[in-house]
Amino acid sequence: MDFKKHFMTAWKSTLEFIVPLILMTLVMIVVSVVTIGILAPVTMAGYMQSILLMVRDRREPKIQDLFSEMRLFFPLLLFGIIACIITYIGFMLLFLPGLLVLIALAFCCLYMLPLMIDKRLGIIEAIKESYRMAVNGNIVEHIIVAVLFFGISAIGSSFLLGSLFTQPLATIFLLSVYDEKVRIGD
Fold it and tell me: What's the confidence (pLDDT) of residue 136?
């Protein structure tokens, strides 16, 4: 996997579409905060759909795209509740088991949302396919993708308004990798 190519794609696309990406990210954050996180997963799905279209077709992202995947509201809400319960149980056992559960969930579900929006897979099928994509081939590459995606997102979240730039960058990077994996059939 050519990490430099994917990162350069993400960097150039972020700069090319900086204004719509910042506006879309801002609206997604505001909607997530106002709805106490209830709409966060479904707006993230719309966010990813819009960015995937940008990566593939050079289509400018639009704010209304955030709400384009409302069909996923209940599956993602149920998934979020189950993931929170499992993580909570892990943290009740001790810090390390909770952290391991969180890392395993994040890694196994790395491509879940792109698969649900792109391939129209159900949640169970998307989780299985995401896991398959992550562990088939060179697993170290997917660990690096996950670390870069979550790392870039975390760096931006660590300072005020940083997410407005780093969230699109990280998402474009992830979707560039996803798109390559889907095109070559890996």
Answer: 85
In angstroms, the CA 26 to CA 18 distance is: 12
Using alpha carbons only, what angle is made at residue 124 by residues 121 and 130, rounded to the nearest 5 degrees?
Answer: 75
CA distance 66 to 136: 31
Q: Which residues contact 124 (CB under 8 A, 6 or more apart)?
A: none
State pLDDT tens for residues 35-71.
999 999 999 999 999 999 999 999 999 999 999 999 9
Residue 186: pLDDT band by 50, 70, 90 thresholds? low
User: Which conformational region is residue 136 in: left (phi greater than 0), alpha (psi within -120 to 50 degrees), or beta?
Assistant: beta
> Whole-angstrom Cα distance, residue 142 to residue 95?
25
Q: Among the residues of 119-160, which ranges form H helices? A: 123-135, 139-157
Q: How far apart are CA 52 and CA 61, in angstroms?
A: 9
User: For the whole prediction, is pTM greater than 0.85?
Assistant: yes
Residue 135's Cα: distance from chain center in Å? 18
* Residue-by-residue DSSP string for 56-104: HH-PPP-GGGGGTTGGGHHHHHHHHHHHHHHHHHHHHH-HHHHHHHHHH
Residue 141 binned pLDDT confidence (cut-offs 50, 70, 90)? very high
